[in-house]
Amino acid sequence: MRFIFDSNTWQEIFGSIGKNKTRTIITVIGVLWGIFIYIALAGAAKGLDNGFERAFESTAMNSMFVWAQSTSMPYEGFKTGRPLQLKLKDVNTLKNRIPEIQYIAPRNAKGVFGGAPATVVRGQKTGTSPVYGDYPIYTKIATKKIFDGGRFINDADIDQARKVVVIGERTQKEIFEIGENPIGEFIKVDNIYFQIVGVHKFIPGGGFESETDMYIPYTTYKKLYNTGDNVDWLTIAAYDDADVIQAEKDVKNVLKSIHRVNPDDERAFGAFNLGEIFKRITGFAKGLTFLSLIVGIATILAGVISIGNILLISVKERTKELGVRRALGATPSEVRNQIILESVFLTIVAGILGIILGAMVLRLIDYLTQGTDFPYTNPTLPIPYVLGALAIMVILGTLIGLIPAQRAVSIKPIDALREE
Amino acid sequence: MIEIKNLHKSYKMGSNTLHVLKGINFNVEAGELVAIMGSSGSGKSTLLNILGMLDVLDEGSYTLDGVPIINLNETKAAQYRNKFLGFVFQSFNLINYKNAMENVALPLYYQGVGRKERQEKALKYLEQVGLKEWAGHLPSELSGGQKQRVAIARALAAEPKVLMADEPTGALDSKTSYEVMDLIQKINDAGNTILVVTHEPDIAAMCKRIVHLKDGVIVEDKKVDQVRASEYVQ
Questions:
Q1: Where in the sequence is the domain holding A116, given as residue range(s)?
Q2: How distant is the Cα of B224 from the closest Cα of chain A, in angstroms?
Q3: A328 vs B79: CB contact, 8 Å cut-off?
Q4: CB contact under 8 A, A329 and B82
Q5: What mean pLDDT is predicted for residues B63-78?
Q6: In terms of domains, do A138 and A214 share one?
Q7: A352: nearest Cα among A36, A19, A6, A22
Q8: Phi and psi dihedrals of B127, rounded to 5?
Q9: Class of domain B2-94+160-231
Q10: Under the phi-then-psi rule, with left for phi > 0, alpha for psi from -120 to 50, and beta for the rest, what region is A180?
Q11: Cys staple from B135: which of A241, B67, B101, B108, with CB 3.0 to 4.6 Å?
């Protein structure tokens, strides 16, 4: 160990690397490229992973939507093609019969999948907005960010069928002046006065929601639009450790039994399983990370092998020099250590340069994709990965350095000197 | 200083062996300047290599300054070479990317001498061979004679017991050869033991003793009246 920290050793090493600049630079580029590819690929994969996660952050990862369609099979005397309608009481049945369900929220909507959006009037200003009839529990499944001073629908709103509304930030801009506080103000929604209790922030994440959406209590909605106990669709979140694909099947089966649908009827109920899709996407991102890890390490390996190769040539080139050194009293271990240290030193320098370069490229990609829809956020590489890569390089550099080092000491000084 | 008894050395060349040294008995006292002469193939370089611990003997014994040189591994040999011996080669063998001073300091590096002291000593020996102002020059910027003088300074830097020169003038013209021999004589005058392998009679005549090798045996070993090289140097 004393050898490594001896300043004389380093002077010798800097001397021999510094005096062969072209060779040194070419050697360094090999490994630099390897670690650069590793950092850039792994970081980009991480960035994609983060990007996907951000795109889904407003909705529970293991949630699904279920809606009713019409039967495609005759059953229990019913003919085929019978339209189905989800009812409010289905919610409790599902919750009781399927233990995987953590939250279940029935929703009604107008102006999204069908029907005209509601007209919104305040003074001289008018607009149209989709309107949703919601339960407070909905926010457990899909987070709604409400601006300061406001709130979402609460249980009292439901019980008393209050005429309160949560409007979107775009609606606020359209019907309020800048700086005007909308909370507590009244607007007319489809000719009924509603009091605004909150403004929600729209988080783009794909899907059908928009920045003009209005939320009113489910019970108010049913009175306003005369929908009875009908439910347009159910939003269901399973427990984190539950199998969402199985949960989806269970939900459909229970619904089929409630609504007397043939258990084999695949088209009676529709479902959009976010959990399944999310699983696929994260699987894709994981695969990408894994692939970049493999490619990166393989490239590093190739780079380190090129270092070994070049050092082997360099040893051959320096046979005579090494012979002279040994005639002057260099022990075989001193010669061997010097060459291994040269190898390790070159590898580390190349590695650090590659990491810096890779980080710069990641930063650049991050900068270029900012504000676009491209799912790419915060492309970082965990420090352990970087240190691990460096450690691998030091180990490989040592191992690969052993080959030329062993070759250097295997030549007898007398043969080395004789070589012309 | 050097004692050699019944030294044998042979090389395997495929199926047949080549018996190069066939029983050499040879002593060198401290302060001697010995020329080892012989035609090519007489075994003179092999003898020098064995004396220089660059090669191992097959049979016989070798004692250097009271230390038996036997069963050396590479590490031990390297340490002995560093401590006891200084080498001067026909082709100079300077390290081409190190300047004159760094070349001279190299054996001191392997002795574990610190950088500052190394440089001071290196400059001292460069001054001794008259090349102090060339300390910062690379070998490629030096003439043949200057290179050999740097090599001699390097051999001296480790303060060896014996200086071994293998055809030190082989690559030099006669004028430069005499300058180098003049330097070697001066070093010998200062009390150093020197062995010179040469095939040139005029160079041999500048030593104090001439050993003639022929076909692996010593055929002649005589003391001579030294010709001073300075007589030829203007």
A1: 63-274
A2: 31
A3: no
A4: yes
A5: 85
A6: yes
A7: A36
A8: -65, -40
A9: alpha beta
A10: beta
A11: B101
Which amino acid is present at A304?
V
Residue type, A113: F
| pTM attached to this predicted model | 0.67
Amino acid at A118: A
Q: Which residues of A touch B154 (CB under 8 A)?
A: 328
Whole-angstrom CA distances from B124 to A107, A243, B157, B182 are: 96, 83, 9, 19
CA A16, CA A28: separation in Å to the nearest integer? 15
User: Does ipTM top 0.95?
Assistant: no
Strands (DSSP E) contained in A78-122 are 86-87, 101-110, 118-122
Number of CB atoms found within 10 A of residue B70's CB: 10
**Does residue A250 sit in the same domain as residue A321?**
no
Radius of gyration, alpha carbons of chain A = 34
Q: Give just the sign of the alpha carbon dihedral A376, A382, A385, A387.
A: positive
Q: Which two structure tokens, joined as six digits, stand for A267?
A: 């088209």
Work out how many domains chain A is built from and give that number. Answer: 2
Task: For residues B103 and B101, give the distance between their C-alpha atoms in angstroms, rounded to a whole number.
Answer: 5
- For residues A239 and A314, state if they share a domain: no
If asked whether residues A109 and A155 sit together in one domain, one would say yes
Q: What is the pLDDT of residue A221?
A: 93
Residue A67 DSSP class: E
The minimal CB distance from B87 to the residues A8, A327, A420 is found for: A327
Together in a domain, A82 and A26: no
Distance CA B89, CA B148 (A): 8
Check A324 against B158: CB less than 8 A apart: no
User: Residue A58's pLDDT is what?
Assistant: 67
Nearest CA in chain A to B138: A19
Q: How far apart are CA B101 and CA B119, in angstroms?
A: 7
Per-residue pLDDT, averaged over B177-198, amounts to 90
Same domain, A179 and A216: yes
- Chain B residue with minimum CA distance to A8: B115
Q: What are phi and psi of B113, to 5 degrees?
A: -80, 140
Residues in chain B: 234
Shared domain check, A123 and A231: yes
Please enumerate in sequence order all residues whose Cβ is within 8 A of that of A109, keeping only pairs 6 or more positions apart, or say none.
A130, A131, A132, A133, A232
Mean pLDDT of B207-219: 90
- Say whether B10 sits in a helix, a strand or coil: strand
- Contact (Cβ atoms closer than 8 angstroms) between residue A272 and residue A64: yes
- Sites in chain A below the pLDDT cut of 50: none
| Sequence spans of domains, chain B | 2-94+160-231
Residues of A in contact with B55 (CB under 8 A): 412, 414
